[in-house]
Amino acid sequence: MEGIEKYRKAGKIAVEVRKFGEPLVRPGIRVLDIADKIEKKIMELGGKPAFPVNISSNDNAAHDTADINDTRVIGEGDVVKLDFGVHVDGYIVDTAATICLNKDFSDMHKVSQLALEEALKLFRPGGTIKEVSEVIEKTIREGGFNPISNLTGHGLERYDLHARMEVPNVKTNIDYTLKEGDVFSVEPFVTNGGGYVIEGASALIYGYEHDGRIRLREGTKILEMAKTKFDALPFAGRWLAGSIPTIKLKIALNQLSQIGALHSYAVLRERENGIVVQSEHSVIVGDKPEILTL
Ligand code: MN
Ligand code: MN
Questions:
Q1: What is the per-residue pLDDT for 70?
Q2: Predicted TM-score of the model (pTM)
Q3: Where are the domains of the chain?
Q4: Most CB contacts within 10 A, which of 5, 104, 144, 148?
Q5: What DSSP character marks residue 74?
Q6: Which CATH class is domain 201-268?
Q7: Topology adopted by domain 4-196+275-291
Q8: Are 99 and 151 in contact (CB under 8 A)?
C-alpha cells in the first residue's frame, strides 16, 4: 500500500503527542499554551499538524482552538476534547481524546471509548459503513446517551482530510463497502443532550478553497501561505500572527471567508448545551484492522 510507512510514522507521532498533551489539560492552564506546546511537539517529532489542535470544552463539540493572544484557561470540572491530526508528507492520521476533569461524565466517556473499540473491529474488507454506524449508535444508546448525528468520521487520503466517505455516528443509508487499504478516522461523539450540533458565532480555523482578491494586500499573502506553508489543509489565524499584524489579519480572514476563498470552520456547539465527549482513532482497513493511533 502506497505511503503505509508514512502513515505508520504519523501514527507513532500522534500516540506520543497524545501522551504528552493529555496531562497538559489541567484547571488554570491557558488553552493557548496547550495548543502551542502540542503543535510544537508534533513538529519536534518530525510531523506537521494536519489542522490546528482542537481544544473544545463542555458543550462545545469541535472546531474550537486558541485565538491570537487567547486568555481562556481550562476550568475546574471541564470536559475537554483534545483533537489533532499529524501528517508525514501528506499522509494524515487524526485522533482525539477526552479529558474529563468532572468525574460525573466518566461513564459517558467510557461509552464513547467502547463505541470506538467496537466500531474499529469492523474495518475489514467487505464490511460496510452502514454496519459501522449501526454499531456506534447502538453502543451509545445502550449506554444511556445520545450520539451526535451531524458529526462524523471520514475517509483519509494524501493531503485530504475528508476523503471518500463519511463515517456517521448514527445509522444512515450510506452505501460503501470497505476495501483493503482504505484509511478512515472513526470518532463517536457522545452527549447527554439531544445529539445535534449547531454553528456558534466564532470561527478560529480556516481552510483554503480558491484564489481571490480583497482590498487588503495581506489577503494574497494569506492565500499563498494557506497553499504552500499549510499545504491547503486547515490552519489557525494564530499561525499567521508572526507574519501579519493582528488587526489586518482578522479583517483579511473575514473578507476572504466572505468571498469564499477561505472556508471558515465555526465552533460547533451542542444545540441543547449537552456535555459532549469524543474518542477518535485512524484505521487502515484489513483482515486485521490496523489502528494507526493506538
Ligand atoms: Mn479529529
Ligand atoms: Mn476526524
A1: 97
A2: 0.97
A3: 4-196+275-291, 201-268
A4: 148
A5: P
A6: mainly alpha
A7: Creatine Amidinohydrolase (3.90.230)
A8: no
